[in-house]
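assembly run, all chains below
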Amino acid sequence: MRVATSTIQQAALSGMLRQQAMLARTQNEVASGRRVQAPADDPVAAARIAELERMLAENGRYAANADALTNRLSYAERAIADASLALQRLQELALQANNGIVDINARRMIAAEMRTRAAEIVDIANRQDVNGEYLFAGFRSSTRPFERTPTGVEFRGDAANRYVQADVAQFISHGHSGAEVFVEIPAGNGTFTTAVAGANAGTGIVDPGSLLDPGAWIADDYDIVFTTPSTYEIRDSANALVQTGTFQSDAEIAFRGISVRISGAPATGDRFEVRPAGTRDLFAALDELIATVESATVTAPERARFGSQMAASIAQIGVSLDHLAKIRAEVGARLNAVETSNTARQDLEVEARAVLSSLRDVDYAEAITRMNQQLVGLQAAQQSYARIARLSLFDYL
Amino acid sequence: MPDVLSTGLSALLAFQRALDTTSHNIANANSPGYVRQRTEFGAREPQAFGNGWVGRGVDVLTITRQYDQFLVEQARGSASSSASLETFAALAERVNNLFGDSGNGLAATMQRLQSALQGVATEPTSIPARQVLIGEARGVVDRFAFFDGRLRALETETELRLDVEIDEVNGLAAGIARLNREIATGFAATGQPPNDLLDERDRLLDRLATRLHVTLVPQDGMVVNVFVGRGQALVLNQGAARLETRPDGFDATRSNVVLVSDQGVADVTAAVTGGSIGGLLDFRREFLDATRNALGRIAVGVAESLNAQHRAGQDLVGDAGGDLFRIGPVGVSPNGANAGSATLAVGRSPVSALTGADYELEFGGGGWSLRRFDTGATVSLSGAGTLGDPLRADGLEIVVNGTAAIGDRFLIRPTREAIAGLAFTIADPTRIAAGVPIRAEALAGNSGAATTTSGEVIDPDHPQLRATVDIEFLTPTTYSVNGSGSFGFTSGAPIEINGWRIVISGNPAPGDRFRVADNATGVGDNRNALALAGSLGRKLFDSGAVSLNGAVARLTSDVGSMTKRTQMSRDAEQLVYAEALKARENANGVNLDEEAANLLRYQQAYQAAAQLVRIAGQMFDTLLDATR
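ok done. output:
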């Protein structure tokens, strides 16, 4: 076979250039630590790398969201705990005032402390987070949610809850609206409320009652009316007779799946009301309690009403405390959910980083071995070229 | 009469010629395209004597080129393909590197925008979070503009290079025509091939082949005709035609390649293949257009999705959210040859049906027909083309104004021009609509166990959108609206009134009330911000199969795999080309050792011939001495 002199030169040169290009590429890989530097190096890996990087960045965002959630939920939890403490003190004070031997002057002093405590709860309900947003105002987070007016404490927020994304498909509410926490508290025992009608002449006191059989209970307005001091009849809102009975002080009066107890001596025509429970505003309930504590107990009916109202108020505070505990548990559950999503996200992140590294990063052992091989190849090409190029027949002419 | 002297002299002359040729070979050992030459010897006609035929010496018959036509043509064809792929790959690599930087890539920028939207969702009343969002949204616009600008610059560069390459082709064609003339003259004068002129012409043909694919047809032995495209003559005997660029009928910024000859002007844009011109045209058509359209489609998707969601929201001061982005219009160019007065107004709707293709709309007397450029397929149109009933196809809404003549054509580029007009329109952070204008809630005192969603806006332009609406349950399965009517209730079914939608689920009790009211003071509302963040991940394109993030990833991998494919073809073709060159050089090129051997051979023969002359002299002297 015939070989042109230029071919020998050209072949050797292009061989060396190719080896140099490969060596430069390997060197670049080693220097940057990246196996895939542009999409064409490995299009499939490049697409996955982009997706993984996007996912990691997204995770970073969710982590920031989770921090904000934790922060905000902790604030809410603190506030609800503080409100519960104040309410417990109010409960103690109410029990103290309900003691029959406390006279009106002492009760007025108790009422004064109660006012301070009630105001403290309003302040707690108006707490703000680090960003100056009211914790319990719903969406109207720059409006002070609870404002004392001549007619009581008015709620100016709304019942909405903001949700924050803690993971791809996980939205966690970052708090409770003031409406949920302080306004819509179940009234009475949660099923019905009892009250002494205003014009009673006797000394009958009604307790908050209890639910015996939820299936038998029909929500309606019931009146227990005394036809004589020892007999009563129960009528519903349509004035239909539900039940009649003989009265005995402190004995259970059971009807439609509930029971109430009336103690004392009711007079003929006295009326006790049983109403389906709606919701009770905590601040209105406290205002009522304070008014009751300050009310006069000179006459027997006044004392009876005082007794009934104190019993109802104390029961309402108990329900409110339960309600706050329930809300606090919900906040705790949300904090737990945030924590769980944090853990899951961290696991995912570790995994994603491992995959990303395997796709993108250079295997140094392999790359350096390859570089050494290429170096040897280039050296061999250079040396053999130098020797072959020196050969010429002209040298011997 | 044969004699030693004349035989010796013929040999002296012949070997001198052979030494000339050898030294010419040695001198041109490194001239590119040089074909080694060889002196062909032939014995002179012998003279008959009674006792036999006596030889009379040697003649130089001719000097031949050691030329292998097949190998030369193979190398030339391979040069065309190789140059075409090399041009394409070099340009594709630049796009590839553009998309390669993952930290500054589109995906990362869009992720930062999504993150900023999440930031506003987490802290809707925070002005800094809103400022970050504005910054990131502008960043996305800038990034789109950056990519589009680079691609545009590449397009401009492609057009310029096309002009330069075509100038080169014209120079080469003129040179080939001139050499055809000189070769024909030289051959006619001597009857011998002018070898070095033939080499020179081959060199020009080789260079021409790296510009575009050519077909050669030899004529009368020595002259060669050059054809390009589908048999259009670039060089015919001693005359050359010219290639020129002319603005495209639709798009004046884009050049077509035409061949200008005595026969007239022929558009050869689609027919030219191979060489750097073929590579430039291929890159423009297959890579650049597709990439720019795909990028534009993503930009339209991002801007339109976010705009639609933002319009359904309310900002920090309680006003309805407007558009976040301004988007470039659909590109419509009438053909320069249109005879009618028709103009088109083209809009995009729905965005999800948009493709990455360009279209040609043609009026065919009976009606309009739409054709995709990339596949060549006809797309079925619906509608009449009026304002009330536009022509619709592939996410386009086309309204025709004026009257079209038969054969009028329009080029429609749905997404190409979108980025040129892309801008973020909001500068005031309070104008970001993170909230929703209405809010639904259960009123206090409900005794049932039903709950409502907080509501979403489906028609932001409804005049009664923010009016207070009370829904009161009459029975567990019926409700009234604002105290009137009785509507059937199914738990979990959406209730749509006044442009909003709520879902009440659970068991309501009679008398339970739900209220949907104006949320103008709901500054802490983040529902729309959450929806905005979610809209970037929603499956939008290709009938709900591809999300915006997915489209970005696909664009990157498409650019990558297309680049990789051309790189691999280029590398393979370069090897083929190198092999073809090697084979050609091995046949045609000079081997110095061979020439050294020839030198030695001819030198020895020359010395021997000189001895012949001396012997002839001595013989003559001997004869003279004998007779003295």
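Chain A has a mean pLDDT of 89.

The first strand of chain A starts at residue 146 and ends at 149.

not gonna interpret more than that til we talk
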